Each structure stands twice: as structure tokens, then as C-alpha cells.
From TrEMBL:
InterPro entries: SirB1_N. It comes from the Bacteria. Belongs to the UPF0162 family. Pfam families: TPR_9, Transglut_core2. This is Tetratricopeptide repeat protein. The lineage of its organism: Bacteria, Bacillati, Actinomycetota, Actinomycetes, Kitasatosporales. Residues 54-199 form the Protein SirB1 N-terminal domain.
Amino acid sequence: MRPPYPPPPERSAELRRRFAEEARSERPDLSTLCLLLGAEADGALDEAGMDAVQIALDELAGRLPFRPGGPRSWAVALRELLGERCGFRGSAADYQRLESSLLHQVLVRRRGLPILLSVVWIEVARRAGAPVCGVALPGHFVVGFGADEQQVLADPFEGGRVLSAADAEVLVAGATGAPLHPSMLGPAEPLEVIVRILNNIRAWAAIRPERSDVSLWAVELSLLLPSHPARLRYERAQLLVQRGDYVGGAAELDAYAEVVAAVDEPAAEKLRRQASAARAMLN
């Protein structure tokens, strides 16, 4: 299977415009953002394909029982439909595939990273009227049904297994060595989910220098979000230089130096020297 590659520049520009617009809207839509991200990753995903994903999510929601009951009943209903009947789950091998971070591919393969499988759970459950949210536990993303003391957690990566309090404690302790704190159980907003997805993609590409194209578009989408670390501009500059765009990389380094100069002039001067070195590569 051919790995996904980005679309032509004109298509990419339009996707990015829509991505930025959606991210800055009053209520960003998680599935729309995931699909725009997916279309930026995979030039084969066109408008009809994006519509087909939304229809598939609607159809899955239609297969759920009508308001099955409280949070645990919802969690069990989603597990039975998505995990058992449809076979959505994850495995260690899924961490090695870019497709595991793309919603349209996860729907086809029924495999993915915890956060993308959770997006499927969230979007199907939300369409069916469930009280659902994403829960960004340290090191592992899960889904929550209900709220506060009534909240029930499920792990889509394990086919929707309903988690006990002890299970959640073990997940957090395994990732951080620290106990589970109630603040970790709050709902993850759509933009938080997108940031985490993009971070996963950047981590995937970072160990694959031949896919610096993926690193670059993931950084550039991150920069379109309303809030992002300023250091992403430095990362973008490095990637541009790495990919042979010495003029663009140098300009980005100079621009970032202006931001840094307000708080750390020696660091800004170092960035300016890097910009000069990048321009020198043109000779």
C-alpha cells in the first residue's frame, strides 16, 4: 500500500485556509479538523471522500441503541458496536504507520492510535446523543461517558474495554509514575485533541528523515492553531533549511530572532548567525 503523500500546492492552500478558519471558529468541529488534517496528509482524500467519512460516522451512530441508559450503558453499547462487531482496536504495530493518525484511514482499516480510535468513539457517540468526551490521560488517550463521580472511562485502543478506577490508576502510573489526579479526567477540547494528533505525527516523522515533508506540514498546521509554542517557528525554519529552502529558512530564523530578542538577545544573535549560515549555502 502506497504511503500517503500531501496534495498539490493549490489544494493544500485551500485546506489550510479551511483548517485555520475551523480552528478559530466559536465551536471547532473535531471531525472536520481531523479530515482537513487528513486531506493535507493524503492527497487522495478529496471532498467526496471527506463527505463519505461523515456519512460513515452517521451510519455507525444509527446502529447504536436509542439512549441505552446511563454512562456505563453507553460505554458498553459503544464497545459492543465498535469494538466487538466492527473490530476497531489498536496494536503496537499501529504506532509505526502514519495512517494510524488519519481519521479516514482509521475508519477503513479499523486500526489506529489511541487518540484516533477515541475520535471515532467520540464522534459516533456524540451523534447518537451520548454524554461523551475525550480524556487525555498522560501517555494514553481514552473516552469518558458522563461526568464527575458518574464518569465511566473506556479504552478504544483495547476495543472499548470499560476501565475501572484501578485500571485508570495503572495507566497513569505506567506513564508518569505518579498517582491519578482528578484533574486528569477533565474533557479534552477539540483543539487539544488536534494538538496531540499533530504532536504524534511530528514524533512519527522525526525519526524518519526521508519524511521531512510530513514534519513540515504538521508544523505548519500547528502554527495555524490559535495558540501554539513560538518555538515551532524555529522548528519550521530548520525543516526548510533541511529540505533545501535556504532563503525561506533564513527568513524564518530572522523573524524568530526578532521574537526572541525581547527576552534573550544572545539567543537571538545565535539565530541570526544560523540565518546567515543558511543563506551562505546558496553559494
